[in-house]
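FIELD: query
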Amino acid sequence: MNVYDSSRISDMLQKEGYEPTVKQTEADIVLFNTCHIREKAAEKLFSDLGRAKLIADERAEHGKNTVIGVVGCVVQAEDTQIIKRAPFVDFALGPLMYHKIPEVLHQIKTNKERQSVVNTDFPAESKFDYLPENKAQGACSFLAIQEGCNNFCTYCVVPYTRGVEYSRPVAEVLTEARRLLDTGTLEINLLGQNVNSYHGEDENGHERDLAYLLHRVAELDGIKRIRYTTSYPADMSDELIACHKDIPTLMPYLHLPIQSGSDRILKAMNRRHTSGDYLRIVEKLKKANPNIGMSSDFIVGFPGETDADFRQTLDVVNQVKYIQAFSFKYSRRAGTPAAVMDNQVEEKVKKERLEILQNLLFDYQTEFNRNCVGKVMPVLLEQKGRHKGQLIGRTPYMQNLHVETNGANLNKIIEVKVAEATTNSLTGKEI
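FIELD: result
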């Protein structure tokens, strides 16, 4: 979602006459799009702001003005702290207000006292109504269809920073999808904080679910690949599961976070599912599509997690055999119920458990990748590699694959025979 938001912000600024630059010393505007999911990301922002201030001061010595802005979830959670800790920031906007950037820039230009502009409102209108037309920037495109979350997991800040769930109308999503396809997209990834709770209205005012939307997107001319992320287990309906059997362009890869294998911890997290519920969903998915590969999120060291709870998480990993996964130590987020629980796990224990879990996850990921050696896979080539004549793409299972091929194949799908595999990537030869 942050990649999508950054892309839309760039579209807005280019419409205002700005051009992107990779050199911060050339930038008239330096803008940080932030995530508040983990403490490390939030703290990194203030380090980056300090460096941006030094560059802005150097530019000022040569008569060049620099506007520094911050947008995203950190602003929503820590709006007063940003200006307090970094008073040189010109504006700070929450994730639902970044469509106001052109207006704010005009304010700053006409504000002789140069007071910081802060806006963390939850507007009644949708920001999507104010964004410029989205066009493909390559063969793969993100398309936000849903934003916000109503689940209120006790460790998570998203409901407080992104607000309640909002789903874009079906027609609006399809219009944007057609535009992306017409401008070069082959793969569309439908996005949402809780994407499978999608409930947008169709042209007749009827509420529709994600399964319906997937079928509509699959009917569009030019679509070669469809993905969706991130899903919530309790919202995996039988109709959505059936899409993995019935829609050939829906990739055989699903990111379905479980967070913990312990029912006791899942309850403390306020997750609306048990480990048994989750495993039954995985079983249904594998029955619908025996070739599907699963990915997940894990939190270790959640308050109150015992060795027995942790072993139950390892049991789930051993049953599902994830082909990829993201795993983290529990991170306290201010304002969430878990942050004030009195049974916090020691940092040393969290670190040890994370290492054990990641080693197991990496073993299964490596095993899956090695089992791909000798297979022929369709690969969507997205970028140039480090070596001359090398392109990098992704398989249907989201694996990075390196291949020596004609540069004209960039942003195309080609057949590749996998020759080598590591934990994190594949190497192959064009067929």
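FIELD: remark
The chain has four domains: 2-119, 133-251, 285-371, 376-430.
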